[in-house]
Amino acid sequence: MKALIQRVSQASVSIDGQQVGAIGRGLLVLLGIERDDTAQDVTKLAHKVAGYRVFSDSDDKMNLSVQDIQGGVLVVSQFTLAADTNSGRRPSFSSAAMPDQAEPLYRSFVAALQQLGLTTATGEFGADMAVSLVNDGPVTFMLQTNNKG
């Protein structure tokens, strides 16, 4: 399971011109789910995202998490994060989870963040979405639960 997290001052997601989710200060999480991901990956990654220290403290050091600042989290499913880009000029999606496996894990990830006390917003699983954000920093990190790559 992979999460590309971006520290944002605001972010939103729209479908067909209609906004379906938005946050102010917090994290935009682009979530990629692979075939071998499990409920354990969901729990591990949710805790890591919630506690990852990417926000500045009073000394301008990255010592605060999204939980610490009581920020929001916008979670958007993005199967392209599961692509194998090691050969050729076209990505392979053979390691991406099929929708019937990925969607329940995506929903569980959002629920796990909510159980950790985070305000969450989402896109729509499998939809063609337009994501808007103001990346604060810019600050972007790739988190993952397995030992690949």
TrEMBL record:
GO-annotated biological processes: D-amino acid catabolic process
Enzyme superclass (EC): hydrolase
GO cellular component: cytoplasm
Span(s) of short sequence motif Gly-cisPro motif, important for rejection of L-amino acids: 137-138
Catalytic activity entry: a D-aminoacyl-tRNA + H2O = a tRNA + a D-alpha-amino acid + H(+); glycyl-tRNA(Ala) + H2O = tRNA(Ala) + glycine + H(+)
Principal place of residence: cytoplasm
Family: Belongs to the DTD family.
Protein name as catalogued: D-aminoacyl-tRNA deacylase
The organism of origin for this protein: Pseudidiomarina donghaiensis
